[in-house]
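Troubleshooting log. The previous run stalled partway through. Resubmitting the same four chains, unchanged.
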Amino acid sequence: MAEARTDHPLERMVFFSDAVFAIAITLLVIELRPPHLPHGASDMAHWRALALIVPSFIGYAISFWVIGAFWMGHHRVFALAAHYHPRILAWNMGLLWTIGFMPFVTAYMSLNMGEQVPTTLYCSEMFLTALFNLKVNRTATSPPMVSEQAAPEAIAYVRQRAVVMVLGTATAVAICFIAPAWGQYGLISIPLWRIVLKRVSRVWTRNPR
Amino acid sequence: MAEARTDHPLERMVFFSDAVFAIAITLLVIELRPPHLPHGASDMAHWRALALIVPSFIGYAISFWVIGAFWMGHHRVFALAAHYHPRILAWNMGLLWTIGFMPFVTAYMSLNMGEQVPTTLYCSEMFLTALFNLKVNRTATSPPMVSEQAAPEAIAYVRQRAVVMVLGTATAVAICFIAPAWGQYGLISIPLWRIVLKRVSRVWTRNPR
Amino acid sequence: MAEARTDHPLERMVFFSDAVFAIAITLLVIELRPPHLPHGASDMAHWRALALIVPSFIGYAISFWVIGAFWMGHHRVFALAAHYHPRILAWNMGLLWTIGFMPFVTAYMSLNMGEQVPTTLYCSEMFLTALFNLKVNRTATSPPMVSEQAAPEAIAYVRQRAVVMVLGTATAVAICFIAPAWGQYGLISIPLWRIVLKRVSRVWTRNPR
Amino acid sequence: MAEARTDHPLERMVFFSDAVFAIAITLLVIELRPPHLPHGASDMAHWRALALIVPSFIGYAISFWVIGAFWMGHHRVFALAAHYHPRILAWNMGLLWTIGFMPFVTAYMSLNMGEQVPTTLYCSEMFLTALFNLKVNRTATSPPMVSEQAAPEAIAYVRQRAVVMVLGTATAVAICFIAPAWGQYGLISIPLWRIVLKRVSRVWTRNPR
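Second attempt completed without errors. Output:
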């Protein structure tokens, strides 16, 4: 019988993280309360009942894609790491903490759509997640964790993505203070920041030569 | 200490997908609310209380087997893929999004059995899932992702299954507009479509020769 | 970059099963509703509130160990299988279906402790699970799935365990018809059946020689 | 097609444990009930509503880090084990049982903050978990399970950590009897016990030579 493959703690940490991401993303649906109408209710009554929970659908969709984006980032980062270092454990746990908290802030925001406190709490949670993500990202793509085979461009790319998440979530927090009802839509700035940073890094790469 | 096996992003994506499928399929049970009768209630009262939630049992059973069928399809498809391509990530995330949404549409349909809006929403969700599934299926069984060892017949078989899911769920949506109470039973056409397509493909394979 | 390890469908099926077992076993806790007493309630009031949910604790504990026993059986069986055969997929899905349904029957039994209908439903669910388990067990430890390295005694042992589960759950169902309040305690017969079968098989092995 | 990797039961047990830990840690969030205020409620009203559930936030945070600490311990222990022995299965199942029960004791304590019974129950659960953890720890780092490559210092370190968890949770239980409102803060003694044991073991190692 072969030796167990439990000797590589990096794999197990990645696995545990995947499970937490998967559970958090799937638990979001629990906060969606399906309407229960009396038997024989008209179709119009059904549409109206669904219309009332549209904020919950929006909250569900945004949070699904944000958790998905963080998972995809985690996925990309650890594809470049090959060695384990105990330092990563606590930071990754912090990231999972903020991910695991998302069903709560999503539900609170959805139940109180457009209000300043819930929206600001939601966006701040996203910002905190982005900060933990940045730290995990840096630790995993630096020695001693980074793989010797990882291409410098690939490392630069995943690091840029983590910075983009910080800028996008910071934009959302900033909007909360000006126009609370639109705070979470600040997350849409994430792809815009990606374009900005891509240009900036191109200029920066060209100029020093 | 050996290198970590986190360098193959395909495995990790498959793993994450498995976790989401497993959680969604198990969360279905949460929507089943067990009756709580006063102490000493008669057996007949218990049978009546259970009879009242029969629609929930039917909804649970159908959704369990539909999510199961999509998982089995995912399973078959990725057994034929050997290489990772970033293109798959977003489509697979879309598929997981529709899978993760199933506990909601199942509960909504079960609470309002036979009504047009909930049934149509349920069947449309199934149809959308089938479309994402088809796209993931095609991407994973085409170059550059497909394994060089994958037999052409095996590829043709899994692709046919994805088309069958699209046809079966489209049948369910169509029935919703004619006889809403029977919409979800349109999903039973899935095995029928499988037989039809098997015959069509046999004719199609024989004739060109 | 190495080839993905997604080419062995058996591993992935085992993985998916593990996830469903793990979720079902952990979801049991959701049905335990913590008492919420007014601030300053006496310790005695707290003990009384906990005493009221003792049936839920018993239900939780029994179901945890029964799901755990089925998982341990699954674990032992697939340690002896080395080849994949599509036939296993549907039977295993049936097993997962009954496992995923356990939080419901557990909650229903706990809420209506000692009543005939809920207890009989609970024990019948266990019996159905044991039947699916037996079928999965037989399929995985027979050609073409069984490993060539699997010792005949190991195969005989895991098969006996599956038969024990069928006998133990059948005992529980039988008791439900005589003394419903004691039905689920019939599961305690599981270790007794194990001893009986061990003796029977020893006699049976000795005599033919 | 390669042989399946399901032949090593240790990996599968570790995997199942990871899934249970991940689900328990993520389910904690379900007990946090987001406040739902009437549309147009003042920011102050929102802050007050959040202030009311501060005990739930504290409970969530403490339990998240305690489950996280037990998972990190499990992670470290099994990185040192290389062989499977059936003896570990039941003890590990006991550990998972106490882990899976944590969402209940957390919610009960959070709903009745500062009361003796809920706090004592919570701390006792932690203590019981620490005892199971110690037993799993010892079994996995002793022959026949321990890896031949495991350094004696690494074994000593993870064993010390398990003892620290027992001492820290025992401290919390002890405080419950004196000042129930502060019981769970006794868990903060965990890092203190780590420092104490480190010194003691250093003295103990130096003296015999």
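Takeaways: Chain A has one domain: 9-31+42-206. Chain A touches chain B through 45 residues (CB under 8 Å).
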